[in-house]
Specification:
Pfam families: TetR_N
GO molecular function, one term: DNA binding
Organism: Hoeflea olei
Number of strands: 0
InterPro entries: DNA-bd_HTH_TetR-type_CS, Homeodomain-like_sf, HTH_TetR, Tet_transcr_reg_TetR-rel_C_sf
Protein name: TetR family transcriptional regulator
Distance between the termini: 46 Å
Order of helices and strands: HHHHHHHHHHH
Radius of gyration: 19 Å
Number of domains: 1
Number of helices: 11
């Protein structure tokens, strides 16, 4: 149960974060969320007009709370932007050893796989959460590219690629019921980033694959 010092709305958002990651959006009921949060159904509908509205708010809550966590993470410490990028990827890999599958996966990624067509408002909120986090990497990627003479792709495209690998790693881990599969994927991502920054390319219209 969430602490009773939290508001009913916050407890419902925390319940959504945990229950949806464990069960999926479709399988999670309003009753599940109320039971987890320790609130009445009346309290639920006082704060959210529907389960879909809760889904949108949960994606926004996820973005807000994870942004605070990442902002204070140790990967910002290195002076070199390239080393900060690698430190970020190692930090993401280390997070994969911090709990069970439902505790280390992404709420936004979990929801959007189910509702991308049926609930556009949730889809858009999940997109904002995932892409918004990705864009926090672009300044370091751009500075690292300039410092090392790396060309052939945009900082934004590499930032989004890191999230594509991470989201795919979560899916692979769930499918194989093994966090180790996700860690292996992030290790490959680290090797890829190390490779492209170790071997700068001449300007080209062809992106690095």
């Amino acid at each position: 149960m969430a602490p009773r010092t939290a508001t009913a709305r916050t407890r419902l958002l925390e319940a959504a974060r945990d229950v949806i990651r464990a069960k999926g959006y479709a399988a999670t009921t309003v009753d599940d969320l109320c039971a987890r949060a320790g609130v009445t159904k009346g309290a639920f509908f006082h704060h959210f007009r529907s389960k879909e509205a809760l889904g949108v708010a949960a994606a926004d809550f996820w973005a807000e709370t994870t942004s605070a966590m990442f902002a204070g993470a140790p990967y910002h410490a290195p002076d070199d932007p390239y080393e900060r990028l690698l430190a970020y990827l190692r930090f993401r890999r280390d997070l994969l050893g911090a709990g069970e599958l439902d505790e280390i996966t992404c709420l936004a990624g979990t929801m959007v796989q189910e509702v991308y067509d049926s609930a556009p408002a949730i889809r858009d909120a999940c997109h904002a959460a995932i892409s918004g986090h990705a864009m926090t990497l672009t300044a370091d990627i751009r500075a690292a590219m300039e410092a090392r003479g790396v060309t052939g792709f945009t900082p934004e495209s590499l930032a989004l690629h890191t999230q594509a690998v991470l989201q795919g790693a979560f899916v692979l881990a769930k499918a194989g019921n093994s966090v180790a599969l996700a860690r292996d994927s992030v290790d490959h991502l680290i090797r890829y980033v190390t490779l492209i920054f170790s071997h700068p390319r001449e300007d080209t219209d062809e992106p690095v694959q």
